[in-house]
Amino acid sequence: MPRIEPITSPEVVEYPGLWSNCLRVGDTIYLSGLTARANDKTTILGVGSAYEQTRVIFTKVKALLEAAGAGMSQVVTMTIYLTDMADNREVWRARAEFFEGAFPCSTLVQVAALATPEILVEITVQARADATG
C-alpha cells in the first residue's frame, strides 16, 4: 500500500499544522488550492490581474510537481476558482504558457470570494508521475 508523502519546495511557502500544499501517494500527486500569496505569507502578487496571479500559481505548481518527481505535462486535472468569470480569458492566456500537447481536464468555477479580497484566482491540481503527456 502506498504511503502519503508530503512534498515541499523552497519556492512555495508551507503552512505547518494547517494543510499540506502537496502530497504524493504512489504515483498520484495532489496539490491544494494554490494562490498568488508570496512566501512572506501576507503579500499577494499580481494584485488586480488574474493573468499575473495565474502565472504565479502555475510557477508554484511547476515547482511542487518537480519536487515530487513530475512535471506540468503530467497534470491530469485541475479546478480553477475565479472571483470574476470575466477573467477567464486571462487565466487561459496564462495557462497556455505552461501547458502544451494534451491539456489537462479542467473545471472553471466562479466563487463569491477567496481567502482575501486581493486573491482573484485559486487552482487545485492532480497529476500522475507515471503518465506521459
UniProtKB/TrEMBL annotation:
Coiled coil: none
TM region positions: none
SUPFAM superfamilies cross-referenced by the UniProt entry: YjgF-like (SSF55298)
Domain of life: Bacteria
A single GO molecular function term of this UniProt record: deaminase activity
GO cellular component, one term: cytosol
InterPro entries, sorted: RutC-like_sf, YjgF/YER057c/UK114
Leader sequence residues: none
PANTHER family: 2-IMINOBUTANOATE/2-IMINOPROPANOATE DEAMINASE RIDA (PTHR11803), PROTEIN HMF1-RELATED (PTHR11803:SF58)
Entry similarity comment: Belongs to the RutC family.
Protein name: RidA family protein
Organism of provenance: Rhodovarius crocodyli
